[in-house]
Specification:
8 helices; six-stranded antiparallel β-sheet; 207 residues; elongated; single chain; 38% helix; 2 domains; alpha+beta
Length: 207
């Protein structure tokens, strides 16, 4: 079951379930305009799921990026929306932004406690903003960054636990959409060793 299937399952069972720090009634009060569809299909990464079947006229997305790219994300938010308010959730500040002219809203928080990276979780009704995020080129930090000291020879197969979660929900959908040239740039950016390059090329050659 994907992260988004689990999300939907949870919020169906409990009306008070929190999504990015907001209850379903609170989200419904924020996202009131009819939800527009994208002009072109959303890309595979970052994955986007509509929340209309639980009564929220918005999309949910979560993705993993470097702290430097997280700064760029925050700047992108500021350039597209105006800050509305902030509240705490699980020791993280959840920020709400609005673009009143377009009747668009964004709620998000980030966490730096997973995979030596920054996890962004957001809900928005702006398909333009989601498209910009998907086109940004922000990279999922590499496995040898996410799991410092983890050997390339261990990567692959039916991974479980943190490695399986990271691969299934972040790395695999990101990495397999890269072209050959983009993969070479990715290896260079994260200083991939020959062993890691060989391991990844073997594992994802058929994806």
């Amino acid at each position: 079951m994907s992260i988004f299937s689990r999300l939907k399952s949870l919020i169906r069972r409990s009306p008070q379930e929190q999504v990015v720090g907001y209850s379903l009634p609170d989200l419904k009060s924020v996202f009131t305009p009819p939800l527009s569809g994208p002009a072109r299909p959303f890309a595979d990464y970052p994955p986007v799921v509509p929340l209309e079947d639980v009564g929220v006229r918005a999309y949910y997305a979560t993705f993993l990026i470097t702290p430097e790219d997280a700064d760029q994300f925050a700047a992108l938010v500021e350039s597209n929306f105006s800050f509305a308010d902030e509240k705490p959730f699980n020791n993280h500040p959840v920020k709400r932004y609005s673009n009143v002219r377009k009747s668009e809203h964004l709620i998000y928080f980030n966490s730096g406690s997973e995979f030596n990276a920054t996890t962004i979780r957001m809900v928005t009704n702006s398909v333009d903003f989601l498209g910009t995020v998907q086109d940004s080129g922000w990279a999922v930090p590499a496995p040898w960054i996410a799991f410092e000291g983890y050997k390339a020879s261990w990567w692959g197969g039916n991974m479980q636990g943190a490695q399986g979660y990271y691969n299934d929900h972040y790395f695999l959908p990101f990495f397999t959409r890269l072209s050959g040239l983009e993969k070479q740039a990715y290896y260079a950016r994260f200083d991939a060793s020959d062993e890691w390059i060989e391991s990844l090329e073997l594992m994802y050659s058929d994806e």
